[in-house]
Amino acid sequence: MMVCNAADFGVTMLDVDDPGQTQAADDFVMAHDAGTPFHRAAWLRAITQATGHRALLLAAVAPSGQIRGILPLHHVKSRLFGDALVSCAFAVDGGLLVTDDRAVAPLAAAAQGLARTRGGPPLELRGGVAPGDEWQRCEGEYVGFVRPLAADDDAELLAVPRKHRAELRKALANPALSVEAGRSERLRRDHYRVYAASVRNLGTPVFPAKLFQSVLQQFGKDADLLVVRDGDRPVSAVLTLYHQGRVMPYWGGGVADARRLRSNELMYYRLMSHGRDRGMTQFDFGRSKAGSGQAAWKKSFGFDPAPRVYHSWSVDGTRRDVNPNSAKYQRRIEYWKRLPLPVANILGPLISRGLG
Fold first, then answer.
1. pLDDT of 218-244, one tens digit each?
2. Which of 14, 57, 165, 258 has the smallest C-beta neighbourhood within 10 Å, fewest atoms?
3. Coiled coil: which residue ranges (predicted)?
4. Which stretches of the chain are DSSP H helices?
5. Binning pLDDT at 50, 70 and 90, where does residue 206 land?
6. Nearest-10 crossing angle of helices 263-277, 162-172
């Protein structure tokens, strides 16, 4: 399906269920230095499979037939939070990915055309090159954290600033703590149990269990789980993506006792070693709200923050409000923290699908 034509490029909607078309798009992503897991067909399919949000993969194609740029989108629909075309849903990155600057304008125009034909939902591009002057630049809200992995475990320990290193040493010296990595059903259950408790304690609805299952299924060997146990009790857990040499811990957390046990410190330290064993060279700690406690914690682990730049556009200039720091949501967050965990785990997935 041809969506838009411009000078040297045609913008085509690729079929995310067509192996040939998605292989061409994935080859483009994997060869691009700025490609992310969120540009991959695996992410698009996983989100659609788990939430029902339709995936829309735009590709700018040169006269030679070669892809010169892509823009993956999900049409997120929610009665609570409103609709949006997001690149990409539940992702912290994505956005326009091009090898020729001439592909930017036709891809951005095609996305705007999709928004108009789909009832005018706002467009949200998370990362990527700037789509144009008429788009709103969103900077200062989020920061990212990336640094090279050290040569070995000893060097990694020394890379952690002294104060935080002392906390990590306490966890390393605790014989009751053990670490397991893999993709087993037990690890999947443990991860969801820990993650659900963690986000409830932060006042956030938990995502559907099917979302994590779908990501693990679609990414195969490029995704796994790591769980820290205190005896037999899981206390910290993380689902990690691996992409082009990067370890990317994505959905992680700990139970209320994790702070006392320093199990989160141990989890990420062991994940660094696990990633090194897999041949990874960079550790991407993901994004955090600028000025948040989470951002300060990552900095204390030896990571320097770098601004994340997003872009948005809408027909009428409006934007969704899905910011948990918004005054609109503060009372709801405090209420959510007090919900019994079983109740939060029933209601959470029904709400969180719309956050995207």
1. 999 999 999 999 999 999 999 999 999
2. 165
3. none
4. 19-31, 41-51, 104-117, 153-159, 162-172, 185-202, 209-219, 258-261, 263-277, 293-300, 327-337, 341-352
5. confident
6. 90
Using only C-alpha atoms, what is the Rg of the chain? Answer: 21
Mean pLDDT value across residues 124-146: 94
| Nearest C-alpha neighbor of 57 from the set 102, 24, 30, 101 | 24
Map tokens 């002392």 to a residue: 166
| Token duo for residue 105 | 């304008």
Which residues have C-beta within 8 Å of that of residue 258, sequence separation ≥ 6?
198, 235, 236, 264
Q: How many CB atoms lie within 10 A of CB 182?
A: 11
Residue 249 is which amino acid?
P
Residue 171 has pLDDT above 70, yes or no: yes
- Which domains are present in the chain? 2-141+310-352 (3.40.630.30), 143-308 (3.40.630.30)
Percent of the chain with pLDDT over 70: 87
Single pTM value for the model: 0.90
